[in-house]
Every structure is written in C-alpha cells, then in structure tokens.
Design brief:
Number of helices: 10
Largest sheet: 4 strands, antiparallel
Mean pLDDT: 81
Organism: Zooxanthella nutricula
Number of domains: 2
CATH superfamily of the largest domain: Rhodopsin 7-helix transmembrane proteins
Shape: elongated
Keywords: Membrane, Signal, Transmembrane, Transmembrane helix
Oligomer: single chain
Low-confidence stretches: 1-15, 419-442
Protein name: Intimal thickness related receptor IRP domain-containing protein
CATH class of the largest domain: Mainly Alpha
Distance between the termini: 80 Å
Helix content: 40-55%
C-alpha cells in the first residue's frame, strides 16, 4: 500500500504554479485550436497586497520541430496564445481565428483584446516577449495550428509560458492558501506540544493502540501542513512548471496517509489487544483507503488548471465514498461491540461515555465529509476572483478544520490521566487487563483466607490434645 501510494503520487498530474513548460508536446492538426492550461491572475488593483508591478505573461524560448527530425514545412503556422477565459467566445471564432489566407492568427475586435496575446512558434524560435495583463480572472493557454494537415510527421513544441502576479508566481486562486496552512501548521504544532507535555506528566503508555494512533495522526497532520506551506511558498518565489515539485508529492502523500491513519484510529478504539484476530482486516482496509483516496487528491489538485472532465472527478470520488461508508460501518461495529461489553461488565462501565463520544465524532466526520465532497464538486474551474475565497475554503480550509476538530475531540476523550483521575483513555485491552488484575487479587485473597482457616483449626486441635 505504501509503495503504491508513493509511485502513484509521483506519476499523477499536479498543477500548482503559473508556468507551463512545453516538453515536446504534439501540435494540434491543421486548422485546429486546443486549450491546454488555466492561469489565475490578480490585477494590480485587485491583488491582496496591492503592488506597483502589473501582472505579466512571458513567452520564452518557444520553438517548433518535427518528431522525426526533418524540416518543418514552410506553410506551418503555429502559435501559442493567452486570453481571458470569460471572453473566449468574444475573442475567438472557430472559422476566422486563422485570419486571411490562414497565415496569421488573430482575435476578434472586443474590449478585452488588449489582454489577449498570440506568440508565433517557429523552427528558428521567435523573440521572447512579455506582456502586461490588466484584468483579474482566469486566463486560458491555447495552442493553434493554422497550417495544412501534414502526413510527413508530427510537429512538437518546446519552451514555456509563465504568468507572474504582483506578489509572485503563485496562482491567484491559491494566494490565501499559504495563510491557511500557516495557521494549520501552528495548530498542529501546539497540539503536538500539548499532547507531549500531558503524556510526559501523566505517564504515556506507548503500547496503547489509541494513544499510538493519536500520535501518528498528529505527526502526519503536522507534516502535511508543513509540506503544503513550503510548497506554496516555493511556488510563489519560483516559476515552477505545471508538474510541480517534490514538495507537492510529499504533501499529497502525507495528506492521504493522515486520512488513512484517522480511519484506523477510530477502528483501534473498538479493537481488543494486539493479538486479536481483528487485526487481519487492517492491512487490506488501509490499502483500499490509500488507493481510492490518492486519485481524488491528485485530480482535485490539478482540476482547476488542466482540462479534466467533471465525470472523471466523479468517477474518482465514488470509489472513495464507497470505501468510506464501508470503513464507517466497520468502525461503528467495533464501537458497538465495545459499548455492549461496557454495559454488561461493571468494571468497564466507566468507559461507556468515552466510546459514545468517539461514535459521535465518527458520525460528525462522515456527515461533514459527505457535504464537503458535494461542495468540492461544485467548485468548478475557470471561475472569477469573487469565488477564489470559496475555492480555498472548500479545497483546504474546511477539510483541515474538520480534521482538526475531530482530532481535538479525540485527544480530549482519550487523554492520558494523572494520579487519582478516572481513566478516560486507553483501549479495551487495558481495561480487560485491569479486570484480570482484580480477579487475580481476589483469588490470592481467597487462598490466603483458606490458609488462615486451616492454621486456626490445627491450633485448636492441639489445644484439645
């Protein structure tokens, strides 16, 4: 499961930066136009931190070559363009975008024409150009071929197109995410410190499944926030390509790992000691959680930048929803067994409120996650600046808030107890062990009483004799 997670995260598409690098992609066939990528631009007057510099788009080292190494035909007319997505139909016409004689690409006359730019792609390379962008919103990267279809071989593009916002290279719809993960990182750091201090003062038992699971989820959440914060900071400082960086892979891996560990944490509450047969189900369930969660995370990361059909996002979400419901039933079955045992055995009745509290937290996570999935689906790509806060809310802030809220509730319920405090913590194995200790003590007491009775009887017989 871990190997599949790392490999799949490495090859999955990721799009976090405002730079598209052509690495030898094939040019569309003759007289066609294709959209390839979506940039999100903050105009200087609309930027969160207003600056003097206007956002700009740069076309760098764009060149055309044939796949078989032959010469590019003289009639090749290929260009790369960037234009406001909201005015796509006002600027382009499928019948006239190639211009007179199919030799020169052009935009239609429209008020947004000043923010739409073509850049020719030639075998010898064209001069690098940089243009200012004066309006906020999504911009689409398009590749057009106005030449005739050729059977000589495919033509390939190399070079890059980069958009820089007034505050850096980060995407406009991701700008406030750095602040979100900064606060999340501080929250996990505080929770880790508080949990560590409490465990040290009250005596932490590393052999307890719940305590160990809580510690793992805390560390995974802390790493996830750190990686995302570092990646967003790097994307704002450097013109990264659409393939992202190793930090993206690390963040997505820890995000999936945290979710899987969270589910297993709830299941640990309803399990017996480590020797229980129930542990045989842990590995396949973990693998299913990882394999169904990772595609959804990767597609959600790239959905707002590269063309991904909504149906594909739904197809990636449905298996995750099915495994999530199955895991929830698995969790509730274990918790139900523990609560029934608490009602039957007097020595374990004090644990009943803790198991009930854990069940309520599990229901909260299921319901809130289900609602969140719907809102994430409704967060369509290509929307204007007035929806970018909503995008950051449902994409990052809400999932982190749900996870942190549930984790804090679990930390409180299963906290290590001090001397003289009722043990609102531990797992059933620890409680069962305590009951065994009481039973052993009772047997020892009965045995001692029998010995005293026999000694007293012997003394009385001697006295009579």
């Amino acid at each position: 499961a871990a190997l599949a997670l790392v490999v799949a995260a490495h090859v999955a598409p990721r799009a976090w930066a405002e730079s598209y690098v052509f690495g030898g992609e094939a040019v569309p066939t003759g007289a066609t136009l294709e959209g390839w990528y979506m940039f999100y631009v903050h105009a200087s007057r609309d930027a969160p931190r207003p600056g003097r510099a206007e956002p700009q788009v740069s076309f760098s080292e764009l060149r055309l070559r044939r796949e078989d190494g032959g010469e590019v035909p003289d009639g090749a007319a290929v260009a790369v363009g960037v234009l406001p997505w909201g005015e796509f139909n006002d600027l382009l016409d499928s019948n006239t975008f190639c211009g007179p004689g199919a030799s020169e690409l052009k935009f239609k006359d429209h008020a947004s024409k000043d923010d739409a730019h073509w850049h020719p792609v030639r075998p010898s390379g064209a001069d690098d150009k940089t243009y200012a962008l004066r309006r906020s919103g999504p911009y689409v990267l398009i590749v057009a071929n106005c030449g005739k279809a050729s059977k000589d071989g495919k033509m390939l593009i190399s070079g890059s197109v980069t958009v820089k916002n007034p505050y850096g290279f980060g995407a406009g719809n991701n700008h406030c995410k750095a602040s979100i993960y900064g606060w999340v990182f501080l929250a996990y750091t505080s929770a880790l410190l508080a949990w560590g201090v409490q465990a040290y003062v009250n005596g932490f038992s590393g052999e307890r499944l719940v305590h160990r699971g809580l510690a793992i989820v805390l560390v995974a959440g802390w790493l996830e926030a750190m990686f995302y914060l570092a990646q967003l900071t790097q994307a704002n400082l450097e013109a990264l390509s659409q393939h992202g960086s190793p930090l993206v892979m690390a963040a997505e891996v820890t995000s999936v790992a945290k979710a899987a560990c969270f589910v297993l944490l709830f299941r640990y509450v309803g399990m017996d000691d480590m020797g229980s047969k129930q542990h045989a189900n842990v590995l396949p369930v973990t693998a299913l959680l990882v394999l169904t969660h990772l595609p959804k995370v990767c597609l959600q990361s790239a959905r707002h930048h590269i063309p991904i059909p909504d149906s594909l996002f739904v197809m990636a979400t449905l298996p995750l929803a099915a495994v999530g419901l199955g895991s929830f039933a698995w969790i509730m079955r274990g918790l139900s067994d523990r609560m029934q045992r608490c009602r039957k055995i007097d020595v374990e009745k004090h644990m009943l409120p803790v198991y009930q509290h854990t069940a309520r937290v599990a229901v909260f996570v299921l319901l809130s996650s289900s609602v969140l999935l719907w809102f994430q689906y409704c967060d369509m790509p290509g929307q204007g600046p007035n929806t970018w806060f909503y995008h950051a809310l449902v994409d990052d802030a809400a999932p982190q808030a749900i996870a942190l809220g549930a984790l804090v509730a679990m930390l409180h319920a299963w906290r290590p107890a001090g001397d003289g405090e009722a043990p609102l913590r531990g797992v059933a194995g620890a409680v069962a062990g305590h009951a065994d200790d009481l039973e052993v003590s009772a047997r020892k007491g009965a045995s001692r009483t029998a010995e005293l009775t026999q000694f007293a009887g012997a003394q009385m017989r001697r006295a009579r004799g």
